[in-house]
Amino acid sequence: MSRFCLQIVSLFILGLTLPASASGPFDIRLPVPGQTFDLNARTVVGHGQSYTIQKGDNLLDIARNYGLGYMELGNIYRHWDPFLPPVGAEIVVPTSWIVPDHPKHPIIVNTGEMRLYFFTDNFTKVITYPIGMGVLDFKTPTGVFKVTEKKTNPPWFVPKTLQAKYGMSVMESGPDNPLGKYKLTLSWGDYGIHGTSQPFGVGRLVSHGCTRMYPEHIEKLFPLVKVGTSVEYIYEPVMIGVRNGRIYLSVNQDFYHRLPDMLTYTLGRLEAAQVAGLVNMMKVLKVVEERFGVPEEVSKTGSDMVSRTPAGRN
User: How crowded is residue 291: how many other Cβ atoms within 10 Å of its Cβ?
Assistant: First the structure.
């Protein structure tokens, strides 16, 4: 593990206890419309937690128990065997995120961080869940769509490329149906947001383009979403946010290999947000190098000890 990651463990908000499924709702304050960057906004939500590895634990189950997709935890501990993490090790559970700061639609799905955001109460609160998404050959697209139908126990119309494998063109609801018990059908073919019979695929590239959620998460989201709700899909691995007047940055892996150079792209994002002069470039370089996908404070102001704690106690 890197020295930086060890510092996170030693400095991380020890003793803070939150619900295991840290999905919200979280109070937010979006930037003032028309303002490039608003230091009075609050777009960093959640707080990190700590957990001590127990005998029999694996990173996939820990991630799910804390409402994370596998990659959100696996990115930090990428050098560990996910099924044999060291017993007794105290780990960081990165249950903090930077929300999209100028949402125009109630649901934003950011495939650049494998996360869904559902805005409520006139965009003053947000609920967020991890997702699984399309493999490289069947990438989940970007664009604005609408929820056209809500289905309980939906049948799966098997893609032609898989019909020979499954021996059918339609699979009815059941334990083997990859759609799970709930589906929000979107206005692009038969694709949508749905549950899954294979929860280990959440936080991974696993589908033919659909958005997969943990069964317990889609069960909560399903009754809250109305037919006609607009859903925007974006691909943004670099997120810039603010909390308590301090600037945070998170950088994910480039899952779909769309960016020729992550550092150049990140610097461009900071320039576009007009905050390049307000951040410590050494901290920015570290965030880009690690690509943990965790909000980390990068402001020029504030102590170095605080700035190295990913969205910790403020």
Answer: 18
Burial tier of 18 (Cβ tally within 10 Å: 0-12, 13-18, 19+): middle
Using alpha carbons, select from 246, 23, 236 the residue that is nearest to residue 118.
23
- Strand 211-212 and strand 192-194: the pairing is parallel
> Going residue by residue through the chain (314 aa), what tens digit of pLDDT does each one get?
443 443 343 333 333 334 345 699 999 999 988 777 888 999 999 999 999 999 999 999 999 999 999 999 999 999 999 999 999 999 999 999 999 988 999 999 999 999 999 999 999 999 999 999 999 999 999 999 999 999 999 998 887 878 888 888 888 888 888 899 999 999 988 789 999 989 999 999 999 899 999 999 999 999 999 999 999 999 999 999 999 999 999 999 999 999 999 999 999 999 999 999 999 999 999 999 999 999 999 999 654 333 334 444 33
Could you count the other beta carbons within 10 Å of the beta carbon of residue 167? 8
Read off the amino acid at residue 175.
P
Would you say how long the chain is, in residues? 314
The residues, any chain, with a CB within 8 Å of residue 194's CB and separated by 6 or more, are 154, 179, 180, 182, 183, 184, 210, 211, 212, 213, 218
Helix, strand, coil % (nearest 5) of the chain? Answer: 25, 25, 50
In the Cβ-directed half-sphere of 49, how many Cα atoms lie within 13 Å?
Answer: 20
What SS3 class is residue 154? coil
Pairing assessment for the beta strands 107-110 and 238-243 based on DSSP bridges: unpaired
- pTM reported for the whole predicted model: 0.88
Distance between CA atoms of residues 117 and 120, nearest Å: 10
